[in-house]
Amino acid sequence: CVSVFPSSCASCRELESEFRDRKPNTLVQVAILDAHAHETIACACTEMVEGTRDPVFLTGVSLSPDWPICEESQIKLSVYDVKGDSQRTSSFLGSASFSVAELLKSKDQQLALSLRTSDDSASVGTVVVCRLKMGEVEDVEVEHVTADAHQKCTLVCESSHGTTNDKDSEPLLNEVFKSPVCKMYRFQTVDGAWLLVREQMSECALSFSLPRQLLNLFIQEDGCRVQELKDLGELSPHWDNLRTGVLTRYGQVIKAYQDTLAELEKHTGPSFKPSCSKGQKYLEFVPINLHTQRMRVTGPSKTDAVYDVITVGAPAAHHQGFKGGGLQRLLSRYEVEKKSYSTAYQCIYYPPEHTAKARDILSTVSQLQPLIGGLADHLLLTAQQHSAHGLRDALKSLALKTEQFVHALKDELVKSALLALHAARPGYVSKSHTSCPAMVDSTPSPAATPAVTPAVTPAPAESLNQSPESDTAVCNSVSASPGTEGGSVKHQDIPHHTEYDEEEWDRVWASVAKNLNRVMDVVDQLRRQDNTTQRPAVEQTLADVITSHSPAAEWSEQLCPLVAALKNCVNEVAERASKSMAFVLLQEAACSSPHGLQLQRRRDTVFSQALVALACGFIVRLYSGMEDTGFLQQLHSVGLVAQFESLLSTYSEEVGMLEDMEVAVSDLQKVTFRITEAPSDDPSKLQPTVSGRRDHYTVDVPLPVQAFQTLPEELRKGKLLHVVPVLFNVGINEQQTFAERFGDISLQERINQRNFDILQAYYKSLRDKVPLESLPCFQTQTDVKELLETLGQNVVTKKRKNVEILWLAGAICRRLNGIRFTSCKSAKDRTSMSVTLEQCALLRDEHQLRKDYFTRALDCMRREGCRIENVQKNIKCRKYAFNMLQLMAFPKSYRPPEGTYGKVDS
């Protein structure tokens, strides 16, 4: 396969147009004749060079690797004089043809071809075609073409194989990123050398696979919540009716998610969601128009520089609409409504931090309870093996997880929720004959319960060797928490109906720590005895025969009742804590009415879109930094900053979109990444997977075996990697003009200030843990600290459409090894302007692009580059959705060239 690109190392001279007194607007069109199918495939054009008989073409033409091109294929180059903004009003000047084989076999892989008129009666110039690869740019002087020089426009041909960095052909990226679109440019530097610029845009296969995984997790989590509510047992009629209503609403949500998942499973189309589908219900969890944009630059130094940005529509619930605002406003209003509903429906109001804590406790208990049971069994197994070293290690693991379990329950919320749950049982009568404790706001104070205490003297054997039926007595026969009168309490059964001992939970909870201390103490004694009573092996064996006594059996016998008591205490505590926290979440659902679960769906929707984009960006950044030891150290030490750039206005519906996006980006703090070793290099084994629940998700990113083995030990051991998401927004369209003059931009100001503080805190953490010398080097000398100071000043400055905030935030992100994202409503129009501007700014600042080439380069990328192809993919039209009136409100650097825009429905 061969790709054809125009080059700027030569030019056309004295081209003739239909009217000799008019200078032509020239472009070159490329067409391929399939030798087997005998069909012509019109692929693309160069940019149009206006008003000159000596055009210099900068833009390349890419041939899709999917097109059937072989050595026998004929390539036809046609030169046109464009009279208006469209090729439909153009006149043909001349053409030339060649075969791929001719090019490949020619000297220096270069052909000089005569441009002929349509009747082949005359020559109108010469076109030179040469094959060139990335990384093979020569440091040549600018060609000074004299008046009598040959008329020529040079095209550069690039092989589709080996044109990108070898890492691009790795199976992981090939599996995750699909349908690449490539464009090639050659631009001049200030010293007259040439830059070869390759632009590539790809779809992300995660756009559909990760939302399907998330929907499965949502369904699973909500199903567990339903079961927890059912497991609460018998409740009074009032509470039972509330539970029934909540279960009904959960059932409706689960059914809706199942239907959406079923529709997504049927999807067989492209790997991206076009902007025109942003309102479709079954696609609401899929990010809008998600693509990776990569620019690779090869200069005279023959070293490649790569710049990546992820483009995606702002995570927003378009299907649900924005009449009531976005998530940020709806969630604030929701908390006020919950308080009024709690009074109307006679249920408890728990603030968001308490319901979040309840979910944390439920998750921790569900994870640690079976883990502690398994570790306890492992301790008994090592005791049977009479391994002092193994016993020590097993006890260490058991103690660690049990302490985590105990500390997870160190909260007055659990105790107060147990009382509220008891009050919701049938037959409860309040001692004070006043309103039920469950009818008031729940505002528990931090607990003052103790942590695991040092080992204590084991209880007498008669109190330890009990039958399973007396396990509860074991739990409640230990010392009470500090502050209990007398230092100990007697065991009491849990009171029923009219009584409830509020200290019962303290006793049961503290019993876990006490029983662990007993196990620890006995293990220490056994190890000390083993060290002091060891005898020669023959003597020990003879003594065992004579006494018929097994030391291993003695160890196991001493530990078995203690371990059984510990497990039973853990199970009892887990059961009570789980029920109490499930009751808390019942209150949240009951107080929220159907509106609450609808809000949860909205939050799930926008989070799904944001998570997919983040996972896409993380994979791109990880793979590009695999050989950068400084980046890998930063990754596991402080994590990565993920900088979202938004161009939404703070007016009309886009306010709601921005409010959705703010919550979605903030929720990404709950996401961690883990790098795993793929079981094989099979592409199906290299797809990332998501696990967890709404308050915490982990994305596992598998790497091929060879790549995985090169990682630092911390990453190979599965350390969870954090991402610090930040969002900066500056509206640039005419709606932002209305907002600045007649509306309210406080949302934008608050977002920028808050996220500046987060970015500054990240930099301070990075500075303390990672050598700043390991950060990327840039030509511009401004350091990160100075850029941050300038950004801080711009954030507080009252300046209309201050796009410098976005430029500074992007520059800081790149210097901090971060992940860059750019968004507008659909990542199609304003996003295209921003991405191309950033690419040309990088060429200017980092690669010495000539000043007079900056605007031309910008127009080339916007007119014929990957972003106009993105527009075509989305709406089947090569026009940015702007009109002249709108563009008058845009900052000048964000305006597309003439002929590339027009108002279209998108």
Question: What does this protein structure show overall?
Answer:
By secondary structure, the protein is of the alpha/beta class. Among the domains are: 2-163, Immunoglobulin-like (Sandwich), CATH 2.60.40; 341-442 and 453-529 and 551-592. Helix content is 45%, strand content 16%. The strands form 3 sheets. Strands 9-10-11-12-18-13-17-14-16-15 form a 10-stranded mixed β-sheet, sandwiched between helices. The protein has a 4-stranded mixed β-sheet with strand order 1-8-7-6. Strands 3-2-4-5 form a 4-stranded antiparallel β-sheet. A hairpin with a 7-residue loop joins strand 4 and strand 5 (90-99). Helix 8 (412-423) packs across helix 13 (551-624). The radius of gyration is 35 Å and the shape is elongated.
Q: Tell me, briefly, the overall form.
A: elongated
Q: How much strand? A: 15-25%
Helix count?
A: 25
Integer average pLDDT:
80
DSSP helix fraction: 40-55%
Radius of gyration: 35 Å
Strand runs, count? 18
Q: State the major sheet.
A: 10 strands, mixed
Terminus-to-terminus distance = 35 Å
Oligomer: single chain
Helical/strand content category:
alpha/beta
- Contiguous low-pLDDT stretches (5 residues minimum) are 1-11, 135-151, 159-169, 432-498, 537-550
Domain C2: 1-113
Catalytic activity: 1D-myo-inositol 3,4-bisphosphate + H2O = 1D-myo-inositol 3-phosphate + phosphate
Region (Disordered): 440-493
Keywords: Hydrolase, Lipid metabolism
